[in-house]
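Progress note, sequence design subtask.
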């Protein structure tokens, strides 16, 4: 429930035996018509004798009015009698009645990225005024800013100008998370598409998701989206568009898959405002005639998908015991932002000493891969494995699975209905304009007053880089000790070891730019959370290990949730062998890698500078690193001792063997060289 609702004063007062004599006095205020009613709220009486409240009901039984408390409101934001609250849209947005649903499916084999042939063409459309407009959605421009919302938006029928030819494709995007503004037929089987900017802005054209009908099989079509604004794209690195066929789903149980040939991302014409635009073109063939198909930038995950998922948890008699779902706050459009509290119900005071872990996702609505990572995390954490049970017994998890439901619903890529990027406004005091991030920050602040928060992670998608990686915060100026500085890199390093074919530690960055000071990652770090991260998942695929040269599918993204949990157990294991091993590897990176620092507009990579100390003269201080045993003893003194009871995952990968290896690390120079060799092999992967 939101904080505002907590401030409401609802009386829980009941009428005691001493008050029964006053019931006759109460009855005289009720006329004969009221006696025919079964229930009456105390607030309706208007009598100063009786407390004004809607929480006390008067029930007429056996000739007398009997007061009782109203059944408590649904505290979890999930109705026990049906689905969650209906989706609300800006009033002017046109929405079709059809509810779009897709089956879950994972390809049997990894889908390779596209390899350019050098023969790809760059279609140029200088003047399309004489061509046929087959789809036009101008409802988004009826208002300059958000005014109010309604369930279902505006259902006024949209007339679509179309060619009289039977082979003209029909387009639609007026459904949840859909995005398409205009389609022009420039040739018999060639179409020029324009995607809609984020509502109440004139930019952020990246996300697309639309429906195509009246298809013809075994015919080469070309689609070209002409108004992207980013100069660099993963489409130039082999990424293919996503495609879904309803007939393929019905006949063969095949869902979203990669499609496209002659893929090219290139500079095109300038926009009306003078900005340079970029185009994406590709060719393809529909598998069936008269099919209903969909194209998307990434695997869709809608607000309705989330609500269905939460409803299933709420109705599950097992999971609902340790996963409580509440409403954090309403959005501008009065859609609910949910917060999940996941932990084993405690029976004694020990539970109140549990440390907290915080995860959030989907602050940028077009980054749907973050929702699939979040789903994998929740699936595993709410599962019945021993590791999941151990995590719930050890920590309190606070999870906000969708920070920007308004943007998700209307098909935005980056902004909320305020027309602003929420992930630049965690420092804002404008609660009414940015409610979800304001309440999230406030919730975390209150949580930190009660218990230690050991990790915060905000899940995102990345449009220009492959693999999965993290952004952290550089604590060199806040910490005078090298060990504290290195500790911020331990969790990402552990995650890269547990997921070597997807997660890239060399791609992780740990600096704080001025332009990023309003992000959740930086704000939570400045609030005192040492391990504060943004985890980025590519829209494309991997360049690592067995996954090299292939796209990520939903199962790959969900698996990151499991590896995150596994790494959390490694990080907090009372047997600190893996922890110290990672510290030692980071120390060796500092000693043996170049300290050349590349200054650019982006964060500095760990590979570019292994350790960026506050004083450049310190560099790799041999006085602090030559004596390995002394160094580890110093580290040990900085780590708070913990009770020895966090294990599993095959008891942390044979804890005894790991402990023996850790012991060897402090025994001599020969073993140091051996460890250095192991470190190098890990990093190359």
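Output:
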């Amino acid at each position: 429930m939101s904080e505002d609702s907590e401030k409401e004063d609802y009386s829980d007062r009941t009428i005691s035996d001493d008050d029964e004599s006053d019931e006759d006095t109460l009855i005289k205020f009720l006329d004969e018509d009221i006696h025919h009613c079964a229930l009456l709220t105390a607030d309706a009486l208007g009598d100063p004798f009786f407390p004004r409240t809607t929480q006390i009901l008067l029930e007429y039984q056996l000739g007398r009015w009997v007061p009782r408390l109203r059944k408590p409101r649904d505290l979890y934001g999930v109705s026990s009698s049906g689905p969650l609250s209906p989706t609300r849209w800006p009033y002017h947005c046109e929405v079709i009645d059809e509810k779009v649903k897709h089956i879950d499916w994972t390809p049997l084999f990894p889908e390779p990225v596209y390899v350019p042939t050098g023969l790809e063409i760059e279609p140029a459309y200088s003047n399309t005024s004489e061509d046929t407009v087959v789809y036009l959605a101008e409802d988004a421009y009826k208002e300059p800013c958000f005014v109010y919302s309604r369930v279902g938006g505006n259902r006024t029928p949209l007339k679509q100008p179309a060619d009289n030819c039977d082979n003209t494709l029909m387009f639609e995007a007026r459904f949840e998370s859909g995005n398409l503004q205009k389609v022009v037929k420039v040739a018999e089987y060639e179409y020029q598409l324009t995607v809609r900017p984020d509502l109440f802005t004139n930019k952020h054209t990246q996300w697309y998701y639309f429906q195509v009908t009246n298809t013809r099989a075994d015919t080469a079509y070309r689609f070209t989206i002409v108004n992207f604004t980013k100069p660099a794209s993963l489409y130039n690195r082999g990424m293919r568009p996503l495609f879904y066929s309803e007939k393929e789903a019905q006949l063969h149980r095949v869902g979203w898959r990669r499609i496209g040939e002659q893929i090219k991302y290139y500079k095109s014409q300038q926009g009306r405002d003078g900005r340079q635009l970029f185009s994406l073109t590709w060719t393809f063939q529909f598998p069936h005639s008269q099919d209903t198909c969909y194209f998307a930038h990434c695997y869709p995950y809608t607000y309705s998908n989330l609500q269905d998922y939460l409803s299933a948890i709420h109705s599950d008699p097992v999971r609902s015991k340790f996963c409580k779902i509440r409403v954090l706050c309403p959005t501008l459009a009065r859609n609910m932002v949910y917060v999940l509290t996941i932990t084993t119900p405690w029976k004694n005071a020990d539970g109140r000493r549990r440390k907290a872990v915080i995860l959030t996702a989907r602050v940028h609505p077009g980054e749907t891969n973050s929702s699939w990572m979040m789903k994998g995390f929740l699936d595993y954490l709410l599962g019945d494995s021993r590791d999941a049970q151990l995590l719930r017994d050890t920590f309190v998890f606070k999870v906000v699975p969708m920070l920007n439901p308004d943007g998700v619903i209307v098909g935005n890529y980056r902004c909320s209905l305020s027309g602003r990027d929420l992930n630049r406004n965690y420092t804002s005091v404008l609660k009414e304009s940015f409610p979800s991030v304001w309440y999230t920050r406030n919730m975390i602040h209150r949580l930190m007053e009660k218990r230690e928060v050991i990790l915060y992670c905000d899940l995102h998608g990345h449009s220009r880089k492959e693999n999965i990686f993290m952004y952290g915060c550089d604590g060199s100026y806040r910490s005078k000790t090298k060990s504290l500085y290195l500790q911020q890199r331990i969790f990402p390093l552990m995650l890269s070891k547990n997921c070597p074919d997807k997660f890239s530690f060399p791609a992780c960055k740990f600096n704080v730019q001025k332009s990023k000071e309003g992000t959740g990652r930086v704000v939570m770090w400045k609030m005192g959370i040492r391990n504060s991260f943004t985890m980025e998942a590519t829209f494309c695929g991997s360049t690592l290990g067995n996954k090299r040269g292939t796209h990520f599918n939903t199962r790959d993204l969900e698996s990151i949730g499991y590896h995150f949990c596994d790494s959390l157990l490694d990080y907090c294991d009372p047997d600190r062998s893996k922890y110290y091993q990672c510290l030692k590897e980071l120390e060796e990176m500092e000693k043996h890698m170049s300290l050349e620092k590349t200054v650019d507009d982006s964060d500095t990579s760990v590979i570019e500078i292994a350790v960026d100390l506050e004083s450049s003269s310190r560099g790799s201080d041999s006085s602090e690193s030559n004596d390995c045993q002394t160094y580890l003893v110093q580290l040990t003194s900085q780590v708070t001792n913990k009770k020895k009871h966090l294990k599993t995952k095959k008891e942390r990968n044979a804890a005894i063997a790991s402990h023996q290896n850790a012991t060897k690390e402090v025994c001599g120079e020969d073993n140091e060289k051996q460890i250095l060799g192991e470190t190098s092999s890990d990093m190359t992967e």
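The CA atoms of residues 65 and 382 lie 46 Å apart. Work on this subtask will continue into the next period as scheduled.
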